[in-house]
Structures are given as C-alpha cells and as structure tokens.
## 1
Amino acid sequence: MAAGREVCRTQGDRVTVLPTARRGEAHASPRRDRPDDVPLPARSPWGRRRRTGLLFTAPAVAFVAVVMAYPLAYLVYLSFHTYRPLTSSEVIPAGLGNYVKLFTDSAVANSMTVTLQFTVMSVILEMVVGTSCAILLANVMLGARSRGSRLAARILGSAYVVPFAVPAVAGAYAWRMLLDAQFGPLNALAGTAVPWLVEYPLLSIVLIDAWKMIPFVIFVMLAAVMSIEPTQYEAAEVDGAGALRQLFAITLPSILPIMVVTAAFRAVDAFTKVFDTVFATTGGGPGDDTRVFPLLIWRTAFTHLDFGTSAAQALAALAISLVFGTAMFLSQRGSSR
C-alpha cells in the first residue's frame, strides 16, 4: 500500500528501485531524454574569458597590423632592390645583393661589434647597480618606523625615477656639457681636463645609458624584492642566518626569474634602440668607435641615401629583435612553470 502511494505520488516520473534500498522503498528520478544518466560537460570559465579577451583586443591588433603591414612589406620590397635617389630615381631589382653586402661589409661587422660591446657592458652595469639599489631601497622602506623615516623613504622611493623620465636627447646633451673638457663640472671637480667623449667614448655612452635606464631596473626589481614573503626572513633569523646568508639564500634566488626577464628586455632595447644617446653625444665617433648599428642604418638611409641597403640592415635588426624577444618569452615561460 505504501509502494502504491509512492507510485501515485510520483506519477509521470520514472521509478527506480535502488539495489541497496530496503523492501518497499523506491527512489524517483526525473525522466531524461538521454538514454544514460551521463552529466553534461561543464563549460570552463577560462575559455569564456579567453574569448572575451580576444574580442576586446581584436580591434587594437587589427589596427596595429594594418598600420605596420604596408611599411614592413615595403621594407622587404626595398631590401631586394637598389634605390639611390642621388644617382637614379628608378628602383632597380638587386636580388640578394643587399644581403650579400650586409654580411661582407666591414662597416656592418664593426658596427655589430660595437653594438654588442655596448649591450653587454650596459646590461651588466644596469642589472648589478639596479638590483643592488633595489635591495637597499627595500630594506630602507621596510625598516622605516617613525613618521620622518617613512616620509624620507617615500621621497627616496619616488625620486629615483627622475632620470628615466628625462628625455633621452635632453639627458644626453646634459651629460655632454658635464663631460666637457674645458667647461665641464666633472673635470672642474677633479681638477683635470680629460675629453671623456673623445678618449673614452664607448665607456661614456655606457655610463650615460646606465644613468637613464638604471631607474627602470630599480623599479622592476624593487617590486620583485617587496613581493618576497617576510616569513622566509623570519624563519631564517630563527635559524641564525645573517644578512649576507639571507641575501644569497632567499633574496637572490627569489628574484632570479625577474632578473633574467629584465636583463633580456634590456638587451633587446640596448641592441636595437640605442640611437639618440649616441647621436647627441659622440655622433658615432671618434672615427667608428661608437657607430652602433641603429646609427649605421640611419646614416646609410639618410646620409648616403642608399635605401635598399638600409632596408636590408633594418630587417637584420628586426630579426635580431625577434631572436632576443623569443629568448625572453621562453625564459619567462620557463620561470613561470
């Protein structure tokens, strides 16, 4: 009778008697169109977010692609042609002649060597000084207790970005006056008359570039140092580790992935974009001592008006940027795993 009442009460549903159920008990489940009670696959929120992100970024990507497509295509076109407006207004096919010249010209080899030396020296100097300053600044900011010390830490934590905010050409001309042999304050303080941009040209532009870009390294590395859990240092102090041991056992290993990515980014920027500082200080001289690769491209195009050769050189610089960028992406991907 109880089972009958159960069937009447669940009329229209399929009645399923569980094997483990007691006699007279039944379990009612809703009728389904599917033959098996297989649950539907859940939709991942990450897929929906990815589609939304692609939808929002698609207009910007399309705009950049349209703006860059024609110049890049014309650059590739010119690299296989000879175009010298001083001698002829015609664009003459050159085949692989511009690329052969790229690998056989001694000026290109010398420029590549100078650019590589500049990149290595500037990146090492910026990473060492920038990381050291970031660690010291983090200790000052975290160790500030009184109101005056906290105010001083805030001022110090924001004043270091001033060189990075100065335009590169303005900073280069300022350093040109500072390093002047006759009227420069540096020689006046040292009591010397050293023409720094003539006797030490490469070292001078490395120092000028480091002065401008070290604040960027400090900014990135300071964020990395501040993100380290304080409990790690507390546990190290309990174990009796000193400041030097904490630096090499906790701080440096924790920020090493960020250091690698930052160094790769700076290498790309230093190798392919060092133009304004050199142009405003040494102009590539004396001789060819500071003629970096971007300056060589500019001179080939706008001084010698050899646009075919300069197009091949520009594509070589683009290829180098892609290699550095791929290495940076792979290192970042490997550090995130």
Note: The longest strand covers residues 14-16.
## 2
Amino acid sequence: MRLFFIVLLGAHGLIHLIGFFKSQGFLESEQLANDISQSRGILWLAVGVLFLLTVPMYLVGYRYWWPYGILAVIVSQGLIITQWKDAGFGTVANLIILIGCLIGGSYWQFDWSSEKEAARQFLNTTELASSTDLHIDDMPPLLSQWVSRSGVLNLPQIKSVKLEQKGKMRLKAGAKWTSFKAKQWFSLYPPGFLWIAQVGNPQSLMQFLGKDALNNGKGTMTIKLWGLLPIVQARGRDIDQGSMIRYLAESIWFPSHMMSRSCTWTSIDSNHVQVHFKPGDQTANGVFGFDESGELVSFSSMRYYDATDRLERWVANIDPTSYQDFEGVRIPTKASITWELTNGDFHWLDVEIMTAVFNFS
C-alpha cells in the first residue's frame, strides 16, 4: 500500500507536467485537447513539482509532508475542473491522495497531542521523592544488588523517562506478527505512564494508532484505525489493574522505582522476589526472577485477560544479554510477553528499547 501511494504521487506529479509543457508549446497532448495559457501552465508546473516533492518527504518520514500533499490536491483539482472533459479522471487520483494525506495528518495530530500530554504530565513534573520515601537497606539482597548494579545510586533522582521502542505483536496465537514502533513516558512521583504506538506492517492497508495510559491509578486504552476511526476505547477495573501491573513490570527501565516506599518486597527463594506496589488506593503484585549471576530476567503476575473476569498468568521474559547503559543507567533493552493460559501459552509481544532519555532532578 505504501509503494502504491508513492507511485501514485509521483505519477500524478509527472502527469501535471504535461499541462505545463503543452502551455509552453513544447508538447502536443491528445489527453489535453483544450488550450492552456502560459500563465496557467505555471500552475500546472507548480502542482507537478509539489506532488513530486511530497514523495521524498513522505519517504524520509518528514512529519509535515501531508500539508504539501493537501495543497497540491486542492490546486490540482481546480486545474482539472478547467480541463474536465480531458482530465476529469485525475479526480480519482486526487481523492486517493487526499485520503492518504488526511491519514498522515491524523497521525501527526495524534503524535502532537500525545507529546503535549506527556510534557504536561511527565516531562515538566517537579514532584520528587523525599529521602524517607526511598529505601534500599531492607531490600532482599537479590533486588538491592540489581538496583545497585543499575547505577541509579550514583545519580540524581529520576523524575521521568522517555523511551523509544520497536517490536512486533499479534492478537491471537498462530496469527501473523505485526510490527510496531512506539514512544513511552513514565513519571515516578506520582507513578504514571503514557504509551503511544503506530501498529501495522508498512505495506499493509490496516494501520492502527494506539495509546495506553496510567494516571492517578486509572488506566485507559485507545485504538484508532488510521488514527481516525475509534476501534477500542476502554477503561475500568480490568484496565486499571492491568495498567498498574504493566507499570510495575516496566519499572525495570527506571530501577530507582524499586526503592520507593510504595513498594514492599518478600523473598520467595534464591531466584525470586515478590513485589507489592501500592502508591494509593490501587495495588499491583508481581514476582521478579533473577538468574544465577544476579541479572533480572523475568516478571510475572496474575492479570485480567481479554476483558474478562478471568485472571491469567502474564509473563515478561527479559533477555539478560540485552543490558545497555543510557545516561549512566543500566537497563535491559529486549523482552517478550507471554500469556500462560489454561489452554496453552500465547506469546503475543516482543519489544526492544532503542533509546532512553532520563529527566533527573
């Protein structure tokens, strides 16, 4: 689909150049039987160039490519009307290009509004933990050693973090994998996150924009087809619980959260620590697993599955060879998520951290 759109933009631009060449007497065209004045021919040239310039902007992911396309469509359609008998077929191309540009605009609006929301809720936060809110001395040794190894004890307090991610997901076992790229923001005090993702293989017609959030203990989930048509808008007890568990699991990417007074821990055995997370009225529980070298390699919890009242085991397996250093903070960068259902395991997501930017106090 992406290739078709690129070819259509380029071909439509080249066709407009015919109008310019005809107006200047450089070309005779049977497709454009009516005369075109030289001044109007300049418009045909300008529109053709505008369509052609839109192609590389779209290819390189320039976020403002779509206004150029819309402007080209508007002027193009005006020119087509003056040559309707010969050029009316170009309206179909303009309509397809316009739809593509509107989808591009919806992606930009979604991303822009999410960036504003993130800046308001996370990046500009001034709230910090007091020294009495942070503790490591009474942690189980497995956890305290891992936190110490992460490097956060030698750094100022982390207020928030922004991640860029890529990965793949699927909706059911045996289904085809679909790629995604995402941005995610976390705040530590108060705890919250915002995750926005573009989901869909580049050549696929079906492209989705998704947003998950946790704010004041309440979770929300939004999914839109092409960024325009709402498919899922969910909130409530199940989403709240799932969002809290997700925050706890993903705190591996900002290890100082483990020192918060909202977390209490219990050693289960020589490789597992249970964490109880209660920042307010909402609670979440999970088990962190460590390998023999002390690396954190897993997280598991019971979580509501598929908008039902059924709790199933939700497991994050962490690649112990993927640890990287970002601004002095050592974190894992690769993980896979599996639902261990009563009728068999469902491996549904793989994620990789590409960048991590920390906002220190």
Note: The chain has a mean pLDDT of 86.
## 3
Amino acid sequence: MRIINRHITKSLLATLSLAMGILVFVMLSAHFFRAFSFLAAGGSPLVFAKLLVLLIPEILRYVLPLSLLVSTVLVFSRMSADNEIVALKASGVGIWQIVAPGLLLAVIFCGICTWLSLWVAPPLRNTSEQLRHEPLAINPLTLLESGLASSLSKSSNLNVRFGHSESNGLLRNIHLTQLSDNGEILWDVTAATGVITTIPGTQTSALVLRDFSISELNLSATKARQQNDREVPLPGFYSASSITIPLDFGDAEDTRSLKRKLKTMPLGMLLGDLAWTISQGTGDVKENSGTRHWLELQKRLALSFSPLAFLLLGIPFGIQNRRSETTAGLLICLVLALFFYLFMLWADGLANRPKYHPELIIWLPNLLYEVGGLVALFRISRH
C-alpha cells in the first residue's frame, strides 16, 4: 500500500508543480506588460522585480487550490483511462485508500493557504502598494502609462494621456484635460512634446509643454445654447511655444489615507479594526461596517479551505472521465473554478447589503463541492 500511496503522491505533486508554475506565470504576465512602460519611464528594474516577488504570496492563495484541482482531475483521469483504478479495486484496495494521498495533500494545502491568507499575503501586499509610490518622489513619470489617461493632480482634476515616452523622459503627442468638480471639461490642451521636472528634496513638480495649444471649453454652456438657441461666446483658443504647469504630487501623497485597506490587514489588525469599527457605530451603520470585515475574513477562510473542496469534486470527475485526452479534464477544471470565483465576486457585490449575509453566502461553493464530491465518492465506492 505504501508503494501505491507513493506513486499517487508523486503523480499529484508532479502535475501540481507544472500547473502551479504555469498559473503563476500567467497571473504575473499581466504585470509584465506594465514593465515596459515602467522601465521606459525610468523605473528601476530592481524595484519592479521586488514588486513581483511581493505579489507572489497573494497569487499563491489562488494558484494553489486551482493547481490542486487541475492535478487531481488529470491524474485520476489518466489512472481511470489506464484502468489502474479498476485494477486497484479488484485487488481489494478501497476507493478511500486510493484517494487518501490526495486528501492529505489537500489538508496540507489548506494549512498553507490559511497561513498565506491570514498572516503573510496581506502585509506583503501593503508593502507592494507602498513601494509603487516610492518612484514618484524621484520620477513621477514611472506611474504613467502610454496610451492611458492618468491623473497628474488630484486637487485640480488634471488628467494626461500621451502617445509614447523616450528613454530621456520626453513625452510625445500629449493630450491634457482639466475637469471641474462636476466632471465637465474646463479646458483641453494638446502638445507635441513635454517633460515632467522635479526639484530634488522638495515636493514641487511641473509639466513643461512645447508647441502647445489650449481650448477653453464649457460643455454646460454649449449644451444650454443648443437647447435654448442663445448666443454664447465661442470657446477660447490659444497657442504658444511653451508653458509650465505646476503639479501637486507631494500634496496628493500627503493627503492619501494612511489607513490600510481591509485586504492588506493581517488577522490581528483586521480583528482589531473590526472591534473598533463596531464600537464606533450603532444600528444599521454598525451592522454594515461589521459586515465588510466579516466578509473579508470569511473570504480568506473560504479560499483557504477551497483545496479540500476542489479535491473532493475533482476526484469523481477524474475517475469518471475515461478518455486519456487532457482537453476534457482541463475544460472541467476551468468551469468548476469559474463557478467558484464567480460566487466570490457575487458575495463581494453584496458587501453593502448585510441583510443577505454575504459572509455566509461565500461558503456555498465550498459546501456544494464537498457535499457533491462526497456523495459521488460514496457511489463510486459501492460499484
């Protein structure tokens, strides 16, 4: 029996390692695309590499359960296709003895995911978010991405979009807009080139534009003219060779809230903030505030115990899939994982509706997978 357990364990670990490596790379690849604009804007490769390393524990929370599901379906599907399951049952080996190595791995992974979710990943995620703002003091351009609208000044609603940047920090094809508090465009600026300059040791920054033109817009006045056929002054248009626009990166950073998000709080801090929040509220406010904290805690725990749920449901699917092709097994894994994570998103959407108890709804996929898997295994053991 030890030989059989060792064989199944090695097969699960081999497939799991391959699946985990692929999934980690896929989830990190979204950040790889940002590396090009980050590095082209003068960001440090070492800082970017540190950001990726800090994100790995957060990614592993999702990768470990999914990798175990992929490994379980593929391994037991292959064993079923090769009639290994039939041979073992004919030799007197029960189905629970066959799946025992997988159950042990699932329990171990539940412990690892709990450790990552409650204590390791949240503070590292907070560190990574803080690290993203460090290059701002040296080069604000590192937080801008070409082709995407980015906010340069929170106090004045100043947004910029540029075509591309060069290695020396020069921006080309700049489109700058300033919005009112109501979201209306006050003025629109286009420039051929521009550069962001900073004064070392201070919080003063400026955007220097070359060959620019400015259009003063008032969409509310234009709309009124169209509705009432009244004459209003045409938008002003100006152009010049250069202009310097002061920015307030430092002030924006100073006004940024120092309180951690719930996702970045370890267990002790999360429970302490929960107790403080409940003590400050009454009635519906108190209930709503506590729901967000409880939902975050239950979401971490539900995700931590998902390896066991994925394993119990993945084993019957693998055994009943008698085809040796891996496409069907991978498709089953994708559907099951999608259903699980959609439930988590649904529960997050109910965070402001405590009467529906989203902290309990988030456990439904775990219960359904475990109950369904146990029922299927009992039926398989009787045949």
Note: The mean pLDDT is 80.
## 4
Amino acid sequence: MYIVDAEKGDLLWKASGNTGDDADLVVADMKFSIPSSPKAIDLDGDGVTDVIYVGDLGGQVFRIDLDKKAVANAGIAKRVRLIAKVGQTESATLANQRRFYEPPAVATFKDSAGQLFATVAMGSGYRSRPLNAITDERFYTFFDKDVVKPNLMAMADADLQAVITTSDLAVLDLNSTTIQDEGVDTTKKGWFIDYPEAGEKSLASGFIFSSRLVFSTYSPVQSVTSNCSPVKGQTNLYTVCMPYGKLCATTKTDPSFTGYKKSNTMAGLGGEPQLMLIKKDDGTLGYTVLTGTTLDAGIFSDLDPNSAKLVPSKKWREKSSKD
C-alpha cells in the first residue's frame, strides 16, 4: 500500500508484508494482492483523511490509522490493523476462498447506549471467474468499534478490538420475519448474508445513504440451454436498513422486491448502483437508484430532497505541459 504526493508524485509512505520491500511498516498479515481501491474516510469533517479501509484477495479487511500530527513521512500512519478475516486465512477450504475486489461502504451509527461505531459493508466475489459457483460468497457488514474512539492514536494494539471472524458475526437470514422486523443480534460484531443463488457474488461496491445500504450482485444464471450460447446472467439489487439489517419500509411495500431483494433487475452485469437526484415529471426533485440501465425510484421514495442544500463535489485533474 502506497501514499503518494498527488502533485509531485513523490512516495510519502509505504506498507508491505515483505520485509525486503524497505517499507515504513511491515505488516505480517499482508499476504495477498490488493486489487481494490482504498476507501479513505474523513471522520470529523475537517477535510483530512483519518482512516483508510481496504480488502484483499485472501478475504481480509485492513484499517490504516493515519496520524494528522505526524512530523515525518514515516509516521504518516500509526498502524495497519487487520480488522476482519473471513476467507482462506480463517479456513482453507475451497468454499471459503473469498476475495474482496471492491472497496467497502462505510458509515457511522450509534448503538442503544449512544456509543458510536462504524459499519464496514462489502461483498466478496471472484471477479476473475464470474461463473464460479464453488466459493460460498457473502455480503458482510463489520462493526468497527475502535475507529471512532478519540484516543485511537494513543491506544496500544493489544487494547484494540480483536480480529473479527465468522463466529463473531450474525447471519442475516433473508427469510426470517424476526430479523426483518427487529434486525440481527446487536451483541455481535456485524452480520453477513449468504447469497441464495448458486454462484451469486458481489462484483461492485454498494453505498449507504439515509441509513439504507444498497448493493448489487451478479448471478451467472444460464438463460438458454444451448452449449453454444453464452451465459449472460443477471443482476440482483438488495436494500438493507442499517446498521442491524432490518427490512426497510419502502422495500417492504414495493412489489418489485421480495423482502430485501429485487431479482433480475437487469440482464447481464449491472455494476455499481448509483444514487441519483433527478427531476420528476411534476418538476420536483426525487432520489432514484441507477443500476446498469435500470432505474429504481422506490427505495428512497419516502425522502424529500427538495429542501436539501446541495454541496458540489471537489474534483482534481492532472496538469499537462500546456497548463
């Protein structure tokens, strides 16, 4: 993992699992490739990244704690912390060869005692073999209780939350009416969904907005029986109320959803769902979700964005020799 000066291109900091890489931090758990983009999070809204989350091809999830008060490049990161392992480092069976190719969706919530915690939501999927049906792919939401602590930089590693494994997580049973109404066991360190369709997997990131998690999956469903025809597959769309996995009111009454899931929202690979603000026929604004070529206005139909203050996003571009 690298941190580089965006203007000059200079290497500022590096972490590696290889002792021969001359890294600022050597992390023994970094044993697998990391194709995912890192997810940078500004927790206090001061415009400076506080932590970075990233997954790897071994089914592991790391958090990089950045030190805003660092006086030297070598101290930019306090630590690289393994927060979860739910792949082959937990169990080496073929079914557990889970891989994280995409960055997580991250949001903060309060528990019943008013304590803040972060949810790190991400799905596994073998992107290099989209037709694979051997791996038991899942969607995970991990609860990170450490990241919001004001003394995180001063904490010793031994005092941090233990690495999350499957036994620490609740199963979000899509068919359980109790979970739909009340959510999962809140004493657990998160939850996961076992995808119901053979070969179903995550090939894109989701997003969290207004306490709703929206993500898509790909199912390699063979739509024709001829061996000469390609397997086109289908995209499914899920919506879960955060943080404990209740069924959202809007999807509960939406006939296009069966519980948490809208099956076959489009043929083929739909990609990452995107939240859009569009003008409706009556001239007012409304939220809709775009997944591939399909629009879904029902998920956030109870929200009125017309009084919201829109903040333009900041962008940067590479300078050319003509600038």
Note: The first strand starts at residue 2 and ends at 4.
